[in-house]
């Protein structure tokens, strides 16, 4: 029969385990598309606390807001181990895009970008593509690949694509290797979403990329 002090020590150990979980913040440009995807990752909650938010801001504004979220967490004594921004090249001014990267790098914020849009990551699940497409063309392509109409805010995309994720990872790496040196603002198409996916997969038991 356990003693009261044994139970107390066990409670302390459980509390210490809870407190040393990784905490990851993901702040997305889109309010629904990207958050709906990343929230579906079945991460093990006793290993990581995953906070995903979409704020409807773009590039430089998004990075600044992400830094504010991060600093607020520090003030509350709940700092994040990793902080990520997720945004697209779209048709934003090149100067804004470059400054967003400069500020993120200076502040230790990691960036998962897509040029031109997040849907490139989805398409890489089906095929390798190094042809520059207008961002509006990706929806039609995805509709063809998926055999149903692609909906931008679809909450089922993670589950529908998870069996093809390894292919997407390989295609994303291959695509980045086409550019030397890399220029995120000008490399169309390109994406680093797979880098964030790799991190999240580390917290899914038995998951291999």
List the helices and strands and how they pair.
Layout: H1 4-19, E1 22-28, H2 33-38, E2 48-54, H3 59-75, E3 82-88, H4 94-107, E4 110-115, H5 119-123, H6 137-146, H7 157-161, H8 165-177, E5 190-191, H9 193-201
Beta-strand proportion:
5-15%
Output mean pLDDT: 89
The largest beta-sheet arranges its strands as 2-1-3-4-5
Taken from the alpha-carbon principal axes, the silhouette is globular
Number of strands: 5
Largest sheet: 5 strands, mixed
Q: What low-confidence regions span 5 or more consecutive residues with pLDDT below 50?
A: 11-18
Intertermini distance: 45 Å
Q: Indicate the structural class.
A: alpha/beta
The rounded Rg comes to 19 Å
Helix content: 40-55%
Note the total helix count. 9
Order of helices and strands: HEHEHEHEHHHHEH
What number of domains? 1
**Oligomerization category of the chains in this entry:** single chain
Task: Characterize the structure shown.
- By secondary structure, the chain is α/β, with parallel strands linked by helices.
- It has one domain.
- Helix content is 45%, strand content 14%.
- The chain has nine helices and five strands, in the order αβαβαβαβααααβα.
- It has a five-stranded mixed β-sheet with strand order 2-1-3-4-5.
- Helix 2 links the parallel strand 1 and strand 2.
- Helix 3 packs parallel to helix 4.
Summarize this structure briefly:
The chain is an alpha/beta fold and 209 residues long. Helix content is 45%, strand content 14%.
Could you list some keywords that capture this structure?
209 residues; 9 helices
């Amino acid at each position: 029969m356990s003693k009261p002090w044994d139970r107390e020590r066990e409670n302390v150990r459980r509390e210490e385990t809870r407190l040393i979980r990784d905490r990851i913040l993901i702040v997305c440009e889109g309010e629904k598309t990207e958050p709906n995807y990343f929230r579906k990752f079945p991460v093990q909650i006793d290993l990581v606390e995953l906070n995903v938010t979409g704020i409807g801001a773009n590039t430089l504004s998004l990075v600044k807001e992400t830094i504010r979220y991060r600093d607020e967490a520090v003030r509350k004594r709940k700092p994040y181990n990793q902080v990520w921004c997720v945004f697209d090249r779209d048709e934003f001014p090149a100067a804004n895009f470059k400054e967003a990267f400069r500020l993120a790098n200076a502040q230790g914020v990691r960036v998962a970008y897509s040029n031109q849009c997040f849907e490139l990551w989805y398409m890489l699940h089906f095929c390798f593509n190094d042809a520059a497409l207008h961002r509006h063309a990706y929806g039609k392509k995805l509709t063809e690949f998926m055999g149903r109409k692609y909906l931008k805010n679809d909450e089922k995309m993670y589950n529908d694509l998870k069996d093809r994720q390894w292919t997407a990872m390989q295609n994303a790496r291959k695509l980045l290797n086409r550019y030397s040196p890399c220029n995120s603002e000008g490399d169309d198409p390109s994406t680093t979403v797979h880098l964030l996916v790799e991190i999240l997969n580390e917290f899914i038991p038995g998951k291999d990329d």
